[in-house]
Amino acid sequence: MKLLQVRKGQFVYYQNELHKVYSVKPLAKKSVLMFRVKDMEQVSSKADEVTFYKPKHMDSFLFFGSRFTLRENQPAEEGGYILITKPDPDYMDHYSLNEFERVESVEGKNVITTRQNTVKSKEFLVMTPGEEASSNDIVYFDKSKVSAEQLEQDAQLEEVLREKNAIRPSIGDVYLNLDNTGTAMVVAIVEEEVILGTGERLTFHQLYKADNWSYLYNITDGEFR
């Protein structure tokens, strides 16, 4: 179903892939701001370029590289994830439609999340790890249009994202140059590239794989790690 009005939190398909709307800017040319659920890549589009989808019991999808299946009437577990599909927060809680929340503790059928929200069982579906038998794969609107190469990349996505996250530097990281024993600090990050205080520019992967740069510490830590 095409949308004339899009609202924050909705699941939509854009360019055949499942996304979640995180903001709507009515006056912008591309008013719908969203991220691709499988890897959190952010994109923007017009409202008439997306197709609405309402997640339901036994839907299966990739969330930041990991496969989950949505289940109703499934006990939540500490450390697991829930998807809030029918939000009805109390005045002390802060959550909205289709938020992914991690469970800190379970109280009967209700849960308290790591963001200190108390979420009632009627408000969420449990995200069970893996793809369950007879589940409905919703990663793509039309899977017949997806190449075998893309599906193979999806199968490796969790590992790729784990490495990418592990090697992502932060401003204030200090590195030792093993060639000349000098040190340099990350002073800026532009997309996938870091700029060192020495003026050198390296991609995340180049810095991570470089033989002559070794991470020392972040200036906010004040200690070697």
Task: Tell me what the structure shows.
The protein is mainly β and 225 residues long. The protein contains 3 helices and 18 strands. The strands form 3 sheets. Strands 11-10-9-8-12-7-6-13 form an 8-stranded mixed beta sheet, with no helix packed on it. A 5-stranded antiparallel beta sheet has the order 4-3-2-1-5, with no helix packed on it. Strands 17-16-15-14-18 form a 5-stranded antiparallel beta sheet. The termini are far apart. The model has no long low-confidence stretch (mean pLDDT 89).
- In the sheet with the most strands, the strands line up as 11-10-9-8-12-7-6-13
How many beta-strand runs? Answer: 18
- Uncertain runs: none
Fraction in helix: 10-25%
C-alpha end-to-end distance:
52 Å
Q: What order do the helices and strands follow?
A: EEEEEEEEEEEEEHHEEEEHE
Mean of residue pLDDT values:
89
Q: Which structural class should the secondary elements be placed in?
A: mainly beta
- Characterize the main sheet: 8 strands, mixed
**C-alpha Rg, in Å?**
21 Å
Count of alpha/pi helices: 3
Strand content: 35-45%
What would you call the shape? globular
Key features?
225 residues; mainly beta; eight-stranded mixed sheet; five-stranded antiparallel sheet; 3 helices
Question: How would you briefly describe this protein structure?
Answer:
The chain contains 3 helices and 18 strands. With 225 residues, it is mostly beta strands.
Task: Please give the structural blueprint.
Blueprint: E1 11-14, E2 17-24, E3 32-36, E4 42-45, E5 51-53, E6 59-63, E7 66-71, E8 81-84, E9 99-107, E10 110-113, E11 118-119, E12 124-129, E13 136-137, H1 148-155, H2 157-167, E14 173-177, E15 183-190, E16 193-196, E17 201-203, H3 204-209, E18 213-218
Parallel strand pairs: 6-13
Antiparallel strand pairs: 1-2, 1-5, 2-3, 3-4, 6-7, 7-12, 8-9, 8-12, 9-10, 10-11, 14-15, 14-18, 15-16, 16-17
